Automatic annotation (TrEMBL):
One of its GO terms (cellular component) is plasma membrane. The chain crosses the membrane at residues 68-86, 98-120. The lineage of its organism: Eukaryota, Fungi, Dikarya, Ascomycota, Pezizomycotina. Keywords: Ion transport, Membrane, Transmembrane, Transmembrane helix, Transport. One of its GO terms (molecular function) is high-affinity potassium ion transmembrane transporter activity. It comes from Botryosphaeria parva (strain UCR-NP2) (Grapevine canker fungus). It is a multi-pass membrane protein. This is Putative potassium protein. It comes from the Eukaryota.
Amino acid sequence: MRNSNVYEERSLGIYDDDPYLDHANGGEEKKSSVFGFIRDRLTGTSSGEQTKGYFVQQQLRAQLAHDLWWLVLAVFVIMIIEGGQFERDPANFSVFNVIFETVSGYGCVGVSVGVTYDAFSFCGSWHKLSKLVLCAVMLRGRHRGLPVAIDKAVLLPSEAQYQAEEEDAQLRMERTVSRHGMA
């Protein structure tokens, strides 16, 4: 996985590992890798090598830290406001339904659960303050954007990138012309 913050659609060179280094470090790597793996699992740290799993894990942590606290706060406030309705109508009012409505609103999905006693959605049976909280969550979700530190494709290619792509296209064109000229 690429660990860059610039959106690029260029070819990457892939090179073989040096077999001499693999052979020279073979015994030490096996010994240290077992202890390193155990140490990493017990302490939750890495020995400097950032793997694909680590990269994805860091992205998920940062994204959840950025988005999740809004949802938790909204669910908490709605649960406090709607506390009396949980006792009156436990069939319709559940924690799952509140979380489902809040996450659906935050993601601007438009999916809602209904109530059994009328022809409107679950959040239609909420108090006005709960509806306002849900509207705030919907606005926050709609206009949140992705943090630049998480979304690696946010930055557009620079002018230098454009120039490099033009040079690559020119080289490809010259090679194509020279191949057809030889044939």
